[in-house]
Each structure stands twice: as C-alpha cells, then as structure tokens.
Amino acid sequence: MTENILEVRDLVKHYPVTRGVVFKKTIGHVKAVDGVSFDLRAGETLGVVGESGCGKSTLARVLMNLERPTAGSVHYKGQDISKLSGGALRRLRRQIQLVMQDPYTSLNPRMTVGDLIGEPFEIHPEVAPKGSRRNKVKELLDLVGLNPEHINRYPHQFSGGQRQRIGIARALALRPEIIVCDEPVSALDVSIQAQVMNLLEQLQSEFNLSYVFIAHDLSVVRHLSDRVAVMYLGKIVEVGTEDEIYERPTHPYTQALLSAVPVPDPTVRDNKAIIRLTGDVPSPVSPPSGCRFRTRCWKAQDVCAEQVPLLEIRRGSDHPSACHFAEKREIVATHEA
Amino acid sequence: MSDILVSEQSAAGASGRPAGRLLEVDDLRVEFRTRDGVAKVINGVTYHVDAGETLAVLGESGSGKSVTAQTIMGILDTPPGFVTGGQVRFHGKDMLTMSAEERRRIRGEGIAMIFQDALSALNPVFTVGFQIAEQFRVRRGLGRAEAKKRAIEMLDQVKIPNAKGRFNNYPHQFSGGMRQRAMIAMSLALDPEVLIADEPTTALDVTVQAQIMDLLAELQRERQMGLILITHDLGVVADVADRIAVMYAGRIVEEANVYDLYAKPAHPYTLGLLNSIPRLDEKGQQLRTIKGLPPNLMNIPPGCPFNPRCPMAQPVCREKIPPLLQVGAGRASACHFAEELVNRD
What we know:
The complex is a heterodimer. Chain A is an alpha/beta fold. Chain A contains ten helices and twelve strands. In chain A, helix 3 packs across helix 4, helix 4 (about 135-145) packs across helix 5 (about 160-170) and helix 5 packs parallel to helix 6. By secondary structure, chain B is an alpha/beta fold. In chain B, the strands form two sheets. An eight-stranded mixed β-sheet of chain B has the order 6-7-8-3-9-10-12-11, sandwiched between helices.
C-alpha cells in the first residue's frame, strides 16, 4: 500500500452569480465543484474525465490553490494546503505544478523560452543559484526533447506540440512531486498528441511523479491513468481503477459516455449500441435535486429525485458508484481487446 | 459480407461513369502569398463525391483539408490565398471559371457548408430563426410569414425541441449542440446536393457529438446528399465514412474505402496515424508515434513530403514525388512502396 500524497475531502467551490452594477446582489451560485473527495497515491496517475462544465478545470484550480475552496480540504502529506498562505504556501507550490491546456495562450509571447522555463527559479532561488540557471534550463529543454540551443527563441517560433513541451519543462523546473495536467494534449494533432503522452509517461517513471490528469478524451485518459474518476455536474459519479471504469462501469452516465466514444475500427460500427442521452447538461446554478444525472437518465425513479446517491461500493460491484441502481452493462469497449 | 459489397461499389465508382460525378476536385493547387514568402498549401488535390456517399477527408492541422473546402465554396481569402491551378467541377462544370453570379446560385442550393465553431459562424445580432428564414426570402422569394413557417420546419427537422419558441432566440441562448443543429438547419434549408461539414463536432462533447453525427447521417440518407466530412478524428471517420481521402502537406496521400484503410493502410503516414491512437491491448507500452513535425509549407522537402518522418524512406523518396496511383481495387496511394505495404501480412 503506497502512501497518499494528496487527500481531497468534500471539496466545494461555488462562484457567486451577481446582478446589478453599483449595488451588487448575489442571486445564486454556480456550483462548479460540489463535494468531491479522492486520494492521489505517490507515483500514480489519477485520470479525471467529464464533459465541458462538469467542474474538471475548477478542480484543477482549487488543487493548485489558485482558487480558495468554498468548503472542504486538500491535504498534501497531512498538511491542509487550502489554509496556507504567504511563505508556507510558496514553499508548497514547489511540490505541485500545473500544465495547462492551451500552449498558445499559456506562454508569454514576449519572453524567450529560457526566461519562461527559468522563471520558476526567480521565485524559488533556493532551487538553482543564479549562475547555474541557464544550464538548468538547457537540461530541462533536453529532457523534454527540445533542442537546448533554442533557448533564446520565442514561443511563436515553436509548433503546438513543442510549446506544450515548453509548458511541461516549466512545470518540471522545480522538481515537483505532483503535476496537475489540465487537458494537456487536447489542442494537439493525433501524431503529436502521442509524442507528448509518451513524454509524460517517461517523465513519470524517471522522477516518480504523481499526475492528476484531467481530460475529456476517454481513450487518452485510459492510456495514461491507473485510476479514473468520472465527473458530472460538480460531483464524482464513479471512481475506480482503469479496468473497473472501462470494463465494468456501473453508473449510467459512465456507460453512456463510454458508448458514445467513436471507435477507430469500421468493422464494429454496425453492431455498436450507443446509449443516446437526450438533452443537455443542466445548469450548475440550479442542479436537479437528488441525483444530478436523473434528468437525462433512463433508469430514473422517484427515489432519484429525493435522495442524493452516495459515492459508495454497490452490490455486485467492486468500486464506488453514485447511483441508486448501479449495475454492470455490456458495452463496446473503446478499442478492441 | 458487407465488406465485399462496399469495395465492389467503390471499385465500380472508381472505374466508370465520370460523367455522373456530382462534385469533383481535380488537381487543385492553392498558395498563400504572405510577407514571409509563398506557402504552397494545396499541391494537386483530386477527389470526388457522389450522391448519397460520405467522403471523409482526414488530415492534421495544416494539411490543407479546410482550404480545399473553402476553395470549393469560393470563400477562400484572396489575398493571401490564390488558386494557381486545377478545377472544381460541379455536375461537370468548372466552378472556378464561372461568373460570381453563377457561383452564388450554386452555394446553398448546390453545395452548402457547416463550420466547426457554430458560435462564430452564426451572426450574434440576429435571431437564429431570422438567419434561417432569410434564405427562403432571398433565394426563394417567400414572404415573411411563409419563410418563418419554413424555418420552423427546418428547426423541427434537426430536432430542436420547441422549434416555434426557439425561433426568436439569439445564438448565445443556444447550447453548443443546439447551435450546431441550427447551423445544420441553415445549411440544409435550400436542399443542397452536396454538404461539406468542416470538423462539425470537434468543439462538442462526446455525448453531443454522437447526437449530431446521428442527425447528419439520418438527414443524408433521407436526402441522398453527397457528404464531405472534414475531420482529424479517426474514430468519427470509422463510424460514418464510405470512402476516406488522407491528406498530408497539401496532397492526397491515400484514398480507399473505410474498411480497407483501417485494415491495411497503403501509406506509411496513414499507418503512423493509426498507430498513434492509444489502444487497450498496448496499455503501459509507449505509443508508436510518427517522429518529427509536419513540414513547413513554405519549404516543403524535395521528393515525398513525408520522407523526413517516414520509417520506410529510401533514397528514391528524397528525389521523386510519388504520384497517387491505384493499388488494388478502388484504392490509391502516393507512396513508392505502397505495393509492399498492402501485400505485407
């Protein structure tokens, strides 16, 4: 049993919705993350999947302490990071770093690659004394597969995949233990995406990193993750090992999501049973009572409107699922076995 | 069984009756003249689509798949984009040499297009209903009330709930999936013979993507439209395409029916793409990637444009551009070693 490096408990993040310009009045809350709990173990990759608006990116921001949670806690090695501030917070930031989705907007166009990757050392000078920084940056460039001689180039001189490598080098600069990846490959082409995924895996085994890997692409998450959490409208609806989620999903939403993934194999297209979900995701300002998925669920009963289903292990299953009627169902896997 | 049927059909399509072709792109060449130099974006693209058929144009960013579509529609930005050669024939007539007025008549009724980002493709200051009804008024000469009735019918056909009530909504009041539906309604309003869908579901979530692709397939069947589906998603292509044209650096590098292409790609680039998809049976292993980057279109390498990244490259690949040649029934590849690829076990 490896130790938990990150323990998240009942994490809640609500954003106020206001009306009026001078006399601002709060008329409601966007419940972006609404009671999320999970553990991250040392050296593992936890995948977080869900559709747009389910709160994945807000979760990343709260984990990074870029936003303070409305309630709940994030413990890093026993220390509640959501309560830290000042020097203590700055020291902790060394351990948790972020790789962002869009390599076109997350790099300052006026800074050279050397400055971009070296910037973390300005904030944490104890990691690398001034004289050694350029060499450190060159090492990092080499590590992520870029030419160290390109240290004086600007971001626009690189392609999308190369920019994402710069983002990864910057996240690695302080030798963190945890890297939160928020959709790191979704802006990239298939062939480049595979290169970046290989890089992430290789770095993980080299530095024993733990990843929180947030993405909407289920096959990418499956390839990289040890465990997977499925989010819907601010809550985790099912969590388990990669096998449990992809082979034996019990939550209707997970099943629908998996069945909708297009399979890159034309021979299965005629005998594939897609579960058609009707309608759109409800507004996170006023989510449905009880189970949040009930408005789109084909199994919904009266109890679903009244009782919030807890994320717990259900009968006939081996992993937690937040559904009153959780059960296995045959679906076509995302790829042939 | 269905396998064999499909390949026979496309074999017949490839050999006979070019007169009946709905839309043909023939050796199209487009370049972008910019301050930094001339980018050769399309270097001899040839493909066609027939009634009731789905042609998927597969390629990564910068491969020229969208620029080809823009040239077909006549919405290429000139300057910087210039057509330097080739033809785009609709019912056998070259659209590139037509008068602007003739071309305008084909748009909408002959060929229509839907775009990736519905929010920026729709006009934010007019209601969705107005934008659809506008076509009936301008092109069909209908009155306001009649046009509105027809527009509501269209919204109904693309399964927008409460179409009547939604008529007066603005684009921002629609969700992403609904906006894409509205755009489909708009493009189909004049009953086109060919529909070009440029990455129609890339901006959407998977569950919504499945809804939209279903809708497109259903409408295509009903109307027997030719559909050109431009995408980079190998999963979507496997689900809906009849034939696939793979593009790389402004060229078609492989064309085949969907079953042949996935079972036995005849070009190393296609093979590389298929290998780059994460697969269940290879979990924990490194993905087999295509090394390197796509070429700079201002400076395309001599010979085969794929040769710097190709694991099979030989000296001949750096000297001669491989033409797109037939390899077996109804399929073609632009690789010097296509035969070897197809005949391997």
